[in-house]
Structures are given as structure tokens and as C-alpha cells.
Amino acid sequence: QVQLVESGGGLVQTGGSLRLSCVASKETGSTYAMGWFRQAPGKEREFVAYIGWVEDSERYADSVKGRFAISRDNAKRTFYLQMNSLKPEDTAVYYCATYYSGAYDQLRSYNDWGQGTQVTVSS
Predict the structure, then answer these.
(1) Do the beta carbons of residue 34 and residue 20 sit within 8 Å?
(2) What is the pLDDT of residue 25?
(3) Which of 48, 68, 98, 100 could form a disulfide linkage to 32, CB 3.0–4.6 angstroms apart?
């Protein structure tokens, strides 16, 4: 299993930016495709972004396309979610996860999950 720890969440005003980080355990020796999901109170967890093993593999939910960017640093065992032009509807707990197989935007395609980090966007 892979241990994942998210950080970088917080309170930001509408239009502001945050960068979330997801750090994998040092024991992780291989490269994973990764995803970001988010869950707002009373709502189902939803797909946000995905990054695969090759260049230009990034995929985004329509709701964040053009505003968010996913990236990774394999040497640091870390991947990131840069969030710009934040809106109140982006408020949620954000989770990173390791992709295994299947559709990249589906929860069932992922194996390991972090504990989440809260992002709150004030209006």
C-alpha cells in the first residue's frame, strides 16, 4: 500500500489561488498515475484531475478545466494541484489517490487515498 498525505488547503477568497501537495511514503518505489478528488458536505466525492505516466496525460473535470493544473515530481514522491481563480463551489475536502485501472474519473479506479485537506473559498 501507498501512504499519501495531502497538504496546502486553507481559506482563500474568491479568485485566489492555492497549491495542494500530495506526498507519498518513502517506501514507495514505483511511479503511480495519480488523481485528485474532492467532496463537499452532503455531496458525493467527485473527480477533479488525473495525471498518468507519460507526457501530456493530464485530464480534468469540466468544472475546473482551465483553472486547475496537476503536476508531479517523481524524485520528491509528490504531486500537486495548482488551483487558480477559485470559486466558492470549489469548497470541499480534497483527496489524492493512486490510480490502478479503469476510467480515470471514477472512484473505483483508485486504490490508495490520503486523509484529505480542506479547501474553503469565501465569497
Answers:
(1) no
(2) 86
(3) 98
Chunked mean pLDDT (size 10), the chain, 123 residues:
93 98 78 93 97 92 98 90 98 96 97 97 95
- What is the C-alpha separation between 1 and 98, in angstroms, rounded? 10
Q: How many residues does the chain have?
A: 123
Spatial contact of 49 and 59, defined as CB atoms under 8 Å apart: yes
Question: Dihedrals φ, ψ of 90, to 5°?
Answer: -80, -10
C-alpha cell at 36: 485528485
Task: Show Cβ contacts of residue 95 under 8 Å, excluding neighbours closer than 6 positions.
Answer: 6, 36, 37, 38, 39, 45, 113, 114, 115, 116
Identity of residue 30: S
